[in-house]
Amino acid sequence: MADAQGWIERDIATVWHGFTQMAAYAGNRPVIVERAEGRELIDVEGRRYLDAISSLWVTTLGHHVPELDAALRDQLDRVAHSTLLGNGNRTVIELAEALAPRVPVDRPRFLFASDGAAAVEQALKIAFQFWTNQGVEGRTTYLAFGGAYHGDSIGSLAVGDGGFGTDVFDPLRFPVLRCPTLGEPGAVDRAVELIAQHADRLAAVVLEPLVQGAAGMALHDPAAVVAVAEAARAHDVLLVHDEVATGFGRTGTLFATEQCPGVAPDLVVIGKGITGGYLPMAATVASERVWEAFLGDDLSERTFYHGHSYSGNALAAAVALRHLELLDEWDVLANVEARADQLGARLAEQVEPLGAVAEVRRRGLMTGIELAPPADGLRWGRRVSAACVERGVLIRPLGDVIVLMPMLTSTAEEIDRIVATVAEAIEEVAAAEPTP
Questions:
Q1: If phi over 0 gives left and psi between -120 and 50 gives alpha, with beta otherwise, what is residue 19?
Q2: Domains of the chain, start order
Q3: pTM (2 decimals)?
Q4: In the predicted model, what is the mean pLDDT of residues 91-111?
C-alpha cells in the first residue's frame, strides 16, 4: 500500500478539492484519512488526529458510531433511495414527524435537499414565489447582513457577503439590501429601519442567528435577533433563519433560534449535523402559512416547481432519525453545556492572554480565535493549524481565525487537549517571527 506521500500524489492526479488551491495542496501536507474511531481520524499510515473541527462542522456524536452504523445497515435492507417527486418514503415521513416538534417553526413542512447551500436556494425561491402566488408585485429582493455566508450556489452567494475568493462571481449575483453584521454598534436599529423603509420590496430577511460561522464566529446577541424578527413580523416580511451551521446542538440548544424568545421564523434552513456527519442531507423548513400559499390546482402556477433527484434520500433519513433519538437518549446537550463552559474557561486561561491573539469569540462549542500577525501575508492561520496537526489535532482555519468545533460528545480530557495544543501551536508560530 502507498505511503501518505504516494496517496497525496494519487489524490492530486484525480481529485479537485473544494476551497483548495490545488497547486499548493501537497505543500500544505494534507491528512489522507483511511478510517476513523470515535472522535479521531486515522490516516493511511496509522496516525491519529483528534477531529477538532467535526469534519467541517458536520460530525456530532463521533465517527463510526455503532447505533448510526446499524441504522444505515437496517435501511439498506429495505431501500436505499426512492424519489420524493410525487411519491413518499416511510423513513422520510418518520424523520419529518420526529423533527417537527423540535424545529422553531409553526406547523412545519420539510423540503429536503442534499446540502445547506441547496436548502438556502430553496428558501430564497420559496420566499420569492410566496408573494407572487398571492398576486403581490415588487417583493423581489432580500435583506442580508455584513459578514454573511449562506453557501456557494449563485443565490446563496448573492445573500452572502462575498469573501473566500468569490468576488469573481459578482456579475452573477443579484443585488440585495445589506445591513452591517448585527454585532456592530447601531446595526440592529439600521436593520429595523431598512425593514420598515423597504417592506414593500422585500421578499424576506435572511439571517444567521447568534453566530456567523464563516465570518470567523462573529457573534450577536439574542436580543438583536428578536428585534429583527419583530420588525419583520410588524411589516409582514418573511424571516429566514439559516441554521445550517448553528443547528443540532452547536450553540448549546438544538437550534440557536431557541435562545431568542418568541422568534418563530417563516423558513429555517437546516443541514450539516442533521445526519451526525454520516450522509449529505439538508432541509428547508417552511411554516404552514408559507406552505399554504403554494396550494392550488394540480399542475397550476402555484406549484413549487423545484426538487432534486436525491431529495429525501432514505439512507440519510434513517441515520438522521436515529441521530435525533440519540441526542435525547445520551442527553447530549447536557454534555455540550458542560464542555462549553470548560472550553470557555480553558481558552480564557491559556489562549486569550497570548500576545499573538487578538480576540476569542465563542458561543457553545462554536469558537473562533482571531490571531494578530505582525504583518500581512504571514499565513498564521494556516501555520498554526499545521502545527496543531503535527501534534495530532486536526484544525482548519478561516484566514487568520482558528476555528474550533469540537464534537458534541467530546470529553473533558479532549477539550483540555485541544486548547493546550492550540496554545502551543500559536506560541510556536509567533516565536518563529523575527524580532523587528
A1: left
A2: 31-61+331-431 (3.90.1150.10), 68-329 (3.40.640.10)
A3: 0.97
A4: 98
